[in-house]
Amino acid sequence: MLNFDCKDNYILEDDFVKLSPLKTEHVNDLIEIANEADIWKYSFVKGDGIENLTQYIQSAIDNRKIGKEYPFIVFDKIANQFAGSTRYCEISPSLKAIRLGYTWYGKAFRGTGLNKHCKYLLFEFAFEKMGAERIGLGAYIENKISIAAMESVGCKKEGIMRGIFPATNGIGRTDSVLLSILKNEWDENGKSRLKSKLNT
């Protein structure tokens, strides 16, 4: 079983970034980013506009209450600004497995190293505190930037889910690329490799 309780308030942070539990009042902190034109291109759940973002955050909080997800708001300590959101999802205590997803950052925070710091903290906590054995990730097959970002933090491609998402153009279906990182990979060299990439 995982050593994890969704009712607890976990804060993950280093000198560059702070991840705190997502709350309803964070709508105001995230609305400007959520309204950026390209944020939701590769998401079947939209969070643009006050109504959509409020529903998006409330749904994540409701799923936390039933132990299904654990959402975070991301704060960039260097810029002194909220940068986006991410979450543990599909939490499976009996399998010691989780998925990491619903990750989005404002355009000003992409390519800054922020994502690597977030992934380092999330991987470290999941493997070394929660006792997870596997972290799964995924992305629209067309989302080459996100797939490359996941590979850059140590994740490995493991397959394709065919026709899982509605196509981004609204016509037909599209595939998802599945990736993962395992605890033994993290312990052997994943942690040290990712740490060496952090802009410390």
From TrEMBL:
Pfam families: Acetyltransf_3. Residues 17-184 form the N-acetyltransferase domain. It comes from the Bacteria. This is Protein N-acetyltransferase, RimJ/RimL family. The lineage of its organism: Bacteria, Pseudomonadati, Bacteroidota, Flavobacteriia, Flavobacteriales.
